[in-house]
Amino acid sequence: MTGERFAKGAVEPDTFQRVVRTVMSTIVERQVPYLMIGGLVSSTLGRSRESHDVDILVAPRDAEQVLAALAEKGFDTEQTFPEWLFKASMDGVLIDIVFCAGSTVYLDDEMLARGRPLEISDLTVHAASAEDLLVTKVASHTEGAPRYWHDALSIISRGELDWDYLVRRARFAARRVLSLLIYAQSEDLLVPDAAIRSLFDEIYGNGKDGLRGFGGVPSGQAMEA
Questions:
Q1: Averaged confidence pLDDT in the chain
Q2: What are the structural domains of the chain?
């Protein structure tokens, strides 16, 4: 059970950077495909906000080996929620190893191909695209994490989205993304009507089943569990 070892807290920048470097080198050594998500990426793609933890998205099949590799490097580790999240910690820096965001979003090939380099001080990591980060935030939004909704709104406010790609990726949290886009328009953020109409039609169109337009096979093949 998560305790003080895995509590978030402020740490010295040098300590944070050293621990992040250890995490990333461990993942690269193991040749594990990953994307960085969470507050660090939100701060560059949306609003600036303080973040004292690191969120890494991996495929379910890779989560245990990443956790074990970090344990070998001296991290405290635990299989916090075996269905979606493991945690690791070193010197007050918390690492979330996510392998299912919001019960619907898994790392897949399309997400990896859309990933972008992110500079964290002198370290370059592979980060989620703005569109995939938005979907991940909305899918994970809960009463206990209201900041995710506002993180997603801040990504829209930047105005640098590939709307066709976002609508396609929205299949993982379609009604939530539609709600976000409508709300964003109500806040005078620039959301194309066409994106809202397209997503609405995909969900509530004349087909027999909801989400009819997304098809049975996603365009980005999910990495096997």
A1: 88
A2: 1-128 (3.30.460.40), 130-215 (no CATH)
